[in-house]
Structure formats: structure tokens, C-alpha cells
Amino acid sequence: MALFNRCRKNFQCYISNLTDPWTNLAVEEWLFRHTDPSIVLLYLWRNAGCVVIGRNQNPWKECNVRLLRNDSIPIIRRKSGGGTVFHDLGNTNYTVITPRQNFTRKHSADLVARAIRKRFEIPAYVNERHDIEIEDLKVSGSAFKIISARAYHHGVESVSSPVTRLRNYSSTVNHESFCDAVLQEFSINYCGNISNPIIVDEELLLKIPKTLDYRDELKSWDWTFGQTPEFSIEFQKTFSWGHVVSLIIYCIILKGLVFMPKL
């Protein structure tokens, strides 16, 4: 019992039973900002189908916004940087939150890769960009966020790079077995014992209402599109009639709104 208590003081794991992407990202933000900054947290989760863009990315340049809307696939801007990824129930996401003074970009990915090697006998390794690869193909990308007292690293398969799947190398890999393998590796690393996870479900959300505020922010147009950095776009059309042979319209888009069109 003493060892379990020591483990809970040094390390905790949360596993989400929810698949709503806004809720899972809201829980991630709550864990990052409102839990004990001295504890290492592992958060394991997966989402229903959606496209997740980095904090500073342009959704109109990263995605076919109209096509995604027609297919009822939401675009969600996360709080961390990094590239655009597609989430569905075939992806398992992991977030590792650590005290800032203990944070390194490679350590968490190393533990995940080690868990994959031990449990599934798959030759996973971490490359120089801190992504997890197998035979030069990516299975997990990385994104990071750092504030005054804490930092986090989270990973999920990237859609913009040559990729592969863990299931291509072992039929025993699924969401549950992956979560169990990673939880065991992190528990042993941080406290020498297997830690019991805290389950994120609707009952737990009732105890942390702040997640609803984060969820509302993530769902808002102002955050998803209005947070887009300023960019410009040029439209050109050529005509065969009259004296006008071409028309060029140059627009500046600021906070998702069109300003200063020029002919």
C-alpha cells in the first residue's frame, strides 16, 4: 500500500472512455493547467473522426474545409503546435505532462517505443524529430506545449508523412492492449509499480466542470477559425471579352474574416 501511495504522488494515469474530440482535448487542457505540477501525468484517449490542426495553422490551407463540412467531419484547433492529423477510433493518442524542469522532448516517446517493443515485439524507435518509427515509417508524430511550471508531449499518427500501422506488425495490437502496455512502462519507470488508472467518463466530468468551459472554447468559431494567423489569397480570372483580359483580386484574411480586397 505504501508503494501504491508513493506511486500516486509521483505518477498518475488517466484513460478516457469518451470519444468526443472536443471533450478529450478539454480534459487534456484541464489536466495540464489544474493538476499538481509536480506529478507526471499520462493521459490515453481516442477520438471519433475529426481533423485536428496545430494552434498556429491555417485550416483553409491544411484542409478542404468545404469537403470536410459536407462529410460532417469537424475541424478542431488544438492548444499545442505541430501539424495536422486525422483522428478516428483506430488512433490512440497519448499525452505526457511533466514538471517543466524534468521535460525533454525525447524521453516520453522513448518510453512509448519501449512499451511497443516489449509488449508486441515490434522494432519501434524514436527518430531525430522525436517521432516514433518502424522501418523508416512513422507510427506516431509529436507536438509539444510548455508553460511556466509544466510541459507536455502528445503523439498521434500524422497524415502528412509516410506512415504505417502497428497492426501491420502484430495482430494483438488494439486500443486496450496499447494503453495497457504504455501504462505499465510508465508506471515502472516512474514508481516501480503498476498504477491503477483514473477513468475519464461522464461521471468524472461532473466533478471538473471547468472542462466544459474549455470544450466550449474549442468548439467556438472564434477559436477554430478566428485564431488563424493573418494570410493573403489571390484570385485570378481571365476574360475574352472587351478590353479586360484578366482580373486579379487580392484579399487579406485576418481572424478568419476578409479585409482590404484590391483589384
From TrEMBL:
InterPro entries with a match to the protein in the record: aa-tRNA-synth_II/BPL/LPL, BPL_LPL_catalytic, LipoylTrfase_LipoateP_Ligase
Pathway note: Protein modification; protein lipoylation via exogenous pathway; protein N(6)-(lipoyl)lysine from lipoate: step 2/2
Highest taxon of source: Eukaryota
GO molecular function: ligase activity; lipoyltransferase activity
Start and end residues of each BPL/LPL catalytic domain: 36-216
Keywords: Ligase, Membrane, Transferase, Transmembrane, Transmembrane helix
Gene Ontology terms: cellular component: mitochondrion
UniProt xrefs under SUPFAM superfamilies: Class II aaRS and biotin synthetases
Keyword Transferase: yes
Family recorded in the similarity comment: Belongs to the LplA family.
Protein name per the record: Putative lipoate-protein ligase A
Source species taxonomy: Eukaryota, Fungi, Fungi incertae sedis, Mucoromycota, Glomeromycotina
